[in-house]
TrEMBL record:
It comes from Tanacetum cinerariifolium (Dalmatian daisy). This is Uncharacterized protein. The lineage of its organism: Eukaryota, Viridiplantae, Streptophyta, Embryophyta, Tracheophyta. It comes from the Eukaryota.
Length: 85
């Protein structure tokens, strides 16, 4: 079998698909209606908000910061605390 440097030809002969890098969206480009967007951010701060009288956890909150140093607050359900913590 002849060798080739064309990646499309290699993928075709081996039956493999070439993965495409997902498009990363900055926080400033996000809109409330966007669902399947990917952001790259670090957690700048995090806390668990609690009910004032009952002192029960109600929400897991954090501040996210992207590469352009744009900040956004993210809120998750308290049941997802272990996953995001």
């Amino acid at each position: 079998m002849a060798t080739t440097s064309n990646p499309d030809r290699i993928a075709e002969t081996k039956g493999k698909m070439i993965a495409i890098e997902p498009e990363v969206t900055s926080i400033t480009d996000l809109r409330p209606t966007d669902c399947n967007k990917i952001i790259e951010a670090i957690v700048y701060g995090k806390w668990i908000s609690k009910h004032v009288q009952k002192r029960q956890p109600t929400r897991f909150c954090c501040i996210l910061m992207d590469k352009q140093v744009t900040l956004i607050q993210a809120n998750m359900d308290v049941k997802d605390t272990e996953y995001f913590n």
